[in-house]
Amino acid sequence: MFKEKEISTWILNPKIKSTVYYPDNFLTIKELNNNLKNFLAIGKLRSYSDSIYSTVIKTTKYNYILDYNKEEGYIECTSGITLKEIIDFVIKDNYFLLITPGTKYITLGGAISNDVHGKNHHIHGSFNESIINLQVLLPNNEIVTINDKNNEIYRAIVGGIGLIGIILKSKIKLLKIPSPFILQRNTKTHTFYQLIDNIYKYNNCTYSVVWLDLFNFNGNKLNAILQTGEFINQNYTNINHILKRINKKITIPHFLRIENLIVKIFNYFYYLFTFEEKIVDFNTFFYPLDFIYNWNTLYKPTGFLQYQLIVNSEEALEKIIYTIYKSNIKPYLSILKLHKEGNNNFLSFPIKGFSLALDFKLQAGLYDLLDKLDNIVIKNNGRIYLAKDNRMDKDKFEKMYSKVNEFKKIRKELGANKKYISLQSIRLSL
Ligand SMILES: Cc1cc2nc3c(=O)[nH]c(=O)nc-3n(C[C@H](O)[C@H](O)[C@H](O)COP(=O)(O)OP(=O)(O)OC[C@H]3O[C@@H](n4cnc5c(N)ncnc54)[C@H](O)[C@@H]3O)c2cc1C
């Protein structure tokens, strides 16, 4: 029922020895919640944060579909189910997730606890928007089902990084689609201003995301590809064949490493050989990184981190980009998204503006650069995404997340501060 093992999140740092429980039913979860004191519920550990602890309840065996309504377009599942399992089940009826992040290998509980967002945040908002209701096990073993988005416990638990209660199950809205295929349009730009103009020009497209070549940015020419997409009506023969093909993964041999020259060349050719328009399956469009099982090991031996910020204006975004350029520390991957206004939850990440997710190899000078970026973010009413952070201090965090005191209050009232804990909650004094 439990194993002693080393665990880490997706960035493989820090690694800690942990007692890992694998409950597959509600009664065991309830018993663990009653008997354990300082612990954390976790999902697939696909965060880039330090939301782990020396005692964890891993929910991935608690992965059941409880109800599915094709007419009304919703599904109810226990929290350990993965988005992949949900998609594989509903796609045959031309349903998809209303909101999905860039990987399908995360759990429903993880999606709710980080209130994840995808390429359609500017239209549909974050995962919060797909929640019809959720059921939570509180520290005192009471079970509550909440369908009111103004409820304080709801506002704390959605985006609440596992620190309020254990999410047991949730009913979520699905998106009706004409087929599992997407018409993807790629628009190339060469300067920052061209890019911003195009983002606004195409902001009525359902899906929109930008690949930015900050690695080859010379202070002037900034290559970017704005990728937009819409599900389309496309004939296909057998969905099981499609699922079989797309769910295949390749594993990178352990001796392979990412090197500056490789990234430089890859970005150059990626930009050159991206064509204007193509029809792709949903997996290629939403989850390109899922094709490679272990890409997170490519950054050996130093490791990597992802820094995702959001700021409220293009001026602030420009400052961020130039600060990175001047530092000579280059992100290997840079993804930019447009966002509409955020929601009412205490710790949800998105606000109206632009988010930029940057993958950096760990290297000398990186933390100095990130400190500078933090300051620009704070000055521009922005924030760093908690799902992607393992370094911010309490002071910065509190400047970025203005509802943190309300979060702490409810955490204390419920007694959750004496039960649920993570390295992240200790670092941020939550
Ligand atoms: C390749 C890749 C692409 C990504 N793209 C995006 C993206 O586009 N947008 C985005 O928003 N995120 C993105 N992410 C981040 C990822 O979606 C989130 O970190 C997500 O929360 C991970 O879910 P998980 O199941 O792995 O949960 P974990 O990482 O294991 O846990 C995440 C949090 O959820 C809590 N938790 C998990 N289960 C429960 C439960 N049952 N009850 C209470 N708390 C619980 C944990 O305590 C923890 O705080 C990406 C990650 C990867 C690896």
Question: Hetero groups bound?
Answer: flavin-adenine dinucleotide
Poorly predicted runs are none
Helicity level, as a percent range? 25-40%
Question: Oligomer, anyone?
Answer: single chain
What is the molecular shape?
globular
Question: Strands of the largest sheet, in order across it?
Answer: 14-11-13-12-16-17-15-18
**What is the name of the CATH topology of the domain at 181-393?**
Vanillyl-alcohol Oxidase, Chain A, domain 3
- Number of helices, where a helix is a run of at least 4 consecutive DSSP H or I residues: 14
Task: Tell me the structural class.
Answer: alpha+beta
Number of strands: 18
End-to-end separation? 30 Å
What's the rounded overall pLDDT mean?
Answer: 96
CATH architecture of the domain at 181-393: 3-Layer(aba) Sandwich
The rounded Rg comes to 21 Å
Beta-strand content bin: 25-35%
Biggest sheet: strands, sense, closure?
8 strands, antiparallel
Instruction: Please write the CATH class name of the domain at 181-393.
Output: Alpha Beta
In short:
The protein has helices spanning about 25-35, 85-90, 110-115, 120-125, 150-155, 190-200, 240-245, 260-270, 280-285, 315-325, 365-380, 395-400, 405-415, 425, and strands spanning about 1-5, 15-20, 40, 55-60, 65-70, 75-80, 95, 130-135, 145, 165-175, 180-190, 205-210, 225-230, 275-280, 305-310, 335-340, 355-360, 385. It is an alpha+beta fold and about 425 residues long. It has a domain at about 180-395: Vanillyl-alcohol Oxidase, Chain A, domain 3.
